[in-house]
Each structure stands twice: as structure tokens, then as C-alpha cells.
């Protein structure tokens, strides 16, 4: 994962649940491989999202992103679909933690969701702690993740970090 992420914005509102990302009904369906769940990502919010999203694209949302189930499927499928980062006014704790654990950057911002429209060009510099909406010429600073979290994100998640480094990051 690059420390600078660039992509188009996919704008969503408040209270996007893990069931909006991937319905719980697919957890119990006879789908054994995560890749086979991709066609159902955001199926009721953004039909055929998996065909439209491009590597590095960014989800921009309001408050309460990721509430609901503690399943890792939601952030794992966003990452697998190519989402480079999720920006939101707030996240539910478990989704936030799961995202970091699987190597998907999640950033809390307040102004960017207010000014961003579908398809705007977004740049996220994780190390500098800056999000830019290049289309609108708006920039917002955030607290950059600590070094240990950047290393986990760069490794592709905590499991990949441990495999690579043969130790925990703290």
C-alpha cells in the first residue's frame, strides 16, 4: 500500500452499515471464497460497484460508517474491490479496527465529506496527514496514523506485518 492514495470519490451518506457493504445473507450462503462475494458489495447502494470501482478509489461518507456486524468481510471486500481508503466523519469502532487489521486505511475527516461529489479526484497522504479534493481545490488535515499503524497498513494488515517482520509492531 502506498502512503499516498489517489482515486475517484464514491460519496455515501451517514450510517452506512456493514450490511450495506455486504449483506449478512451472503455470510450464510454457500459462498466459500471471498472473491465470489465481490458482485454483492454495495449491491443495494451502488449496483455493480465491483465493476465500476477502480484501484485506489476512495469512499467518502458521513457519520457512523461501518456500524452493525463485527464481520471482517466488509472491510476485506472493500479492499479486495480496490478501494484505497475510506474517509468518513466517524466510524464505528469495530469496523475501524477491522479495517486497520486488514490494511485498509480509514481516516476521520469533517470538511471533505461536505464538499465532495461523486467522481471528484481525491488524494490521501497518510504520512503527512492531508486529504485533498483535487477537483474542488479543498484540503483538510488529519492526525496522521502513528508509525506502527502506517507499517501495518503498508504491510497489508497485521497478519502480513507479523509474517514479514516476525514480531508485533509494538
TrEMBL record:
Q: Which domain of life is it from?
A: Archaea
Which keywords label this protein? Amino-acid biosynthesis, Branched-chain amino acid biosynthesis, Leucine biosynthesis, Lyase
Q: Does the keyword Plastid apply?
A: no
Name the EC number(s): 4.2.1.33
Tell me where in this chain the Aconitase A/isopropylmalate dehydratase small subunit swivel domain is found: 50-104
Under the heading Pfam families, the entry gives:
Aconitase_C
Q: In which pathway does it act?
A: Amino-acid biosynthesis; L-leucine biosynthesis; L-leucine from 3-methyl-2-oxobutanoate: step 2/4
Reaction(s) the record says it catalyses:
(2R,3S)-3-isopropylmalate = (2S)-2-isopropylmalate
Entries under InterPro entries matching the protein: Aconitase/3IPM_dehydase_swvl (IPR015928), AconitaseA/IPMdHydase_ssu_swvl (IPR000573), IPMI_Swivel (IPR033940), LeuD (IPR050075), LeuD_type2/HacB/DmdB (IPR011827)
Output the PANTHER family linked to this UniProt entry: 3-ISOPROPYLMALATE DEHYDRATASE SMALL SUBUNIT 1, 3-ISOPROPYLMALATE DEHYDRATASE SMALL SUBUNIT 2-RELATED-RELATED
Q: How does this polypeptide assemble, per the annotation?
A: Heterodimer of LeuC and LeuD.
What family is this? Belongs to the LeuD family. LeuD type 2 subfamily.
According to its UniProt entry, what is the function of this protein? Catalyzes the isomerization between 2-isopropylmalate and 3-isopropylmalate, via the formation of 2-isopropylmaleate.
What is the protein name given in its UniProt record?
3-isopropylmalate dehydratase small subunit
User: Which organism's genome codes for this protein?
Assistant: Pyrodictium abyssi
Amino acid at each position: 500500500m502506498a502512503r499516498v492514495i489517489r482515486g475517484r470519490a464514491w460519496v455515501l451518506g451517514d450510517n452506512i452499515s456493514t450490511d450495506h457493504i455486504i449483506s449478512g445473507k451472503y455470510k450464510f450462503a454457500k459462498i466459500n471464497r471471498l472473491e465470489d462475494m465481490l458482485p454483492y458489495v454495495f449491491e443495494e447502494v451502488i449496483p455493480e460497484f465491483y465493476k465500476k470501482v477502480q484501484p485506489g478509489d476512495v469512499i467518502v461518507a458521513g457519520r457512523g460508517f461501518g456500524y452493525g456486524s463485527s464481520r471482517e468481510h466488509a472491510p476485506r471486500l472493500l479492499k479486495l474491490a480496490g478501494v484505497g481508503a475510506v474517509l468518513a466523519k466517524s466510524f464505528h469502532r469495530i469496523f475501524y479496527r477491522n479495517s486497520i487489521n486488514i490494511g485498509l486505511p480509514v481516516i476521520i475527516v469533517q470538511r471533505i465529506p461536505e464538499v465532495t461529489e461523486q467522481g471528484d479526484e481525491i488524494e490521501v497522504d497518510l504520512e503527512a496527514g492531508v486529504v485533498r479534493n483535487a477537483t474542488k481545490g479543498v484540503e483538510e488535515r488529519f492526525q496522521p496514523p502513528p508509525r506502527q499503524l502506517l507499517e501495518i497498513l503498508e504491510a497489508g494488515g497485521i497478519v502480513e506485518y507479523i509474517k514479514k517482520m516476525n514480531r508485533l509492531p509494538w
